[in-house]
Specification:
Layout (H helix, E strand, L loop, with lengths): L3 E2 L1 H16 L3 E4 L2 E5 L12 E5 L2 E4 L5 H10 L5 E6 L6 E7 L2 H9 L3 H4 L9 H10 L1 E4 L21 H9 L8 H9 L68 E7 L8 E2 L10 E4 L17 E3 L8 E2 L3 E3 L7
Length: 329
């Protein structure tokens, strides 16, 4: 069996990315600067700090059982992915895909780090090599067999770990969203024309005033049962509820979404396109889910977290891509 790494792995991801573009599954979120967090929310939502986000693209909806199942099937016998972290930024990426941990590690050992992470250079220091080696983690992608009640093709995929969600996003030419990207897309919305069809527009140089932010990512800005799925017994099919003016669906409720970030306290410093901390114990979650009865968990600024190895029937995901739709990240 041939291990996919380097050019072959990039081609596999590019093919999946092209399919998403062809199916009109991505929404462009034009960049801007906004005050992230909430002074009236939970302690971990403070301090409010300035974040600048460049234009990016996000999946319209959470990934579904049907989409995830098709992806797992497309892997064939290559069900083991090797993840490694950029030696400078700590941002993870999938380095190889194969049939066993031994296979993928052997393949990566033959590739210079400068090719695995373009622009990183060759790591020649002992500390640099150790940091890179310590970041390597193999992830086995199991068959997708959701529990009864969560297994319809159009329901959002659940019961996947952060690592499995990350592999899916990476092998579609994207990444999981950062907390900053997610909160920006959920909160910074111009008023729609009443039917949700007015395009979402904001210039990349625009600075968003705190008074323009939405507490809840719904068309009305309120968490009503006809606009968001919560306090229920299971998930709802994607597309059941009205989309935001920017075209995104289920940005609150239905399922918590895994974020790229390690969960750590906020800094007060202004940041531009942050990639998050380089290490931590838990990965961040956003959006709230069907399971939550209290709307406070559905607020766009609310933060959740869990161990990246955990699976839960209220955890799902969607992915983001760079603005340039001609190629994957």
């Amino acid at each position: 069996m041939t291990v996919l790494a380097g050019v072959e792995l990039n081609a596999f991801a590019a093919q999946n990315f092209a399919a998403a573009v062809a199916n009109d599954e991505l929404v462009t979120i034009e960049g801007g600067t906004f005050p992230m967090g909430s002074e009236t929310g939970e302690p971990d939502e403070k301090p409010v700090h300035e974040v600048t986000i460049s234009t990016f693209q996000m999946r319209r909806d959470d990934e579904t059982n049907g989409q995830y199942g098709n992806f797992v099937d497309s892997l064939g016998d290559r069900r083991v992915a090797l993840i490694g972290a950029h030696p400078d930024t700590g941002v993870e990426r999938v380095l190889a895909l194969g049939g066993s941990e031994k296979e993928v590690r052997a393949a990566v050992d033959k590739i210079p780090v400068s090719q695995l992470f373009p622009g990183a250079g060759d790591i020649v220091t002992i500390g640099g090599m150790r940091t890179f080696a310590d970041s390597l983690k193999s992830v086995e992608i199991p068959d997708h067999r959701p529990s009864c009640g969560f297994d319809r093709p159009r329901q959002p995929v659940v019961e996947v770990s952060w690592y499995e969600a990350f592999v899916y996003a990476s092998l579609h030419g994207g990444a999981l969203p950062t907390e900053e990207q997610f909160e920006y897309a959920a909160r910074v919305m111009q008023a729609s024309n009443g039917n949700g069809h007015e395009p979402y527009r904001t210039a990349s140089t625009r600075v968003i005033d705190a008074r323009e932010l939405r507490e809840y990512a719904t068309l009305s800005g309120r968490p009503t049962k006809d606009q968001v799925h919560y306090g229920a017994k299971t998930t709802a099919d994607v597309g059941t509820y009205p989309r935001l003016a920017n075209g995104l669906g289920d940005m609150c409720g239905n399922v918590w979404k895994w974020m790229q970030n390690w969960y750590v306290p906020y800094s007060k410093d202004a940041v531009i396109d942050p990639t998050g901390p380089t290490s931590g114990k838990c990965k961040s979650l956003r959006g709230g889910s069907w399971f939550n009865d209290d709307p406070q968990y559905l607020r766009a600024a609310h933060r959740g977290y869990d161990d990246p190895d955990d699976r839960h029937d209220s955890f799902g995901f969607r992915w983001v891509a760079a603005q340039d739709s001609g190629k994957p990240l």
